[in-house]
Amino acid sequence: LEGDTLTVIPEAGRAMLDAKEFASVATLLPSGQPHVSIMWVERDGDDVLLSTVKGRRKHLNLERDPRVTVLVCPSDAPYTYVEVRGTATMTEEGGRELIDRLCTAYTGADRYTMDDGTDNVRVVVRVTPDKVIVR
Fold it and tell me: Which residues does residue 11 pair with via DSSP β-bridges, in sequence order?
C-alpha cells in the first residue's frame, strides 16, 4: 500500500504503531544533515506522539524546522514498515504524562524515572502526517 498523497494512517500502519515497536525518528540538524533517534511512540488518531526534553537536540531541531519522519519497522516482520512524514508541533502540557504512558507501554514500569531529580522539562511532540507510506 503506498499513496503519494495519503495523509491518514491505514489500518496496517496503525497496527505497527500500536504494537509498541521502537521508532526511528529523523529531524534536521542546523547543517541540514539528518539526525536520527530511536524512540518510543504513541498514536493519537492519525498523529504520532513522541516525548523529548526541552533544550535537547531533537527539541531544538524541531523548533527551528518542524519537518520530521517517523519510521517503524516491526522486529518480527522486517520487510514491512510504516513511514509517517509530517510536521511537528510541541507543547509542555501533558509532557510528564506522555513519558510515563510510554514507559508503561514499552517497559511495564509505572513511571519514567530517568528524569527524576533533574530540572528537565518534558515536551510532547505531535507529528501530523503530510505523507504516509505503508509496505
Answer: none
Taking the C-alpha atoms of residue 69 and residue 73, their distance in angstroms, rounded to an integer, is 13
Look up residue 30 and give its DSSP letter: T
Residue 47: which residues within 8 A CB-CB, separation 6 or more? 126, 127, 128, 129
Residue type, 95: G
Could you report the per-residue pLDDT of 72-128, keeping only the tens digit for each? 999 999 899 999 999 999 999 999 999 999 999 999 999 998 887 789 999 999 999
How many beta carbons lie within 10 A of that of residue 17, not counting itself? 20
Using alpha carbons, select from 102, 83, 85 the residue that is nearest to residue 28: 85
Structure-block grid coordinates of residue 135: 509496505
Set of cell numbers at residue 81: 514498515
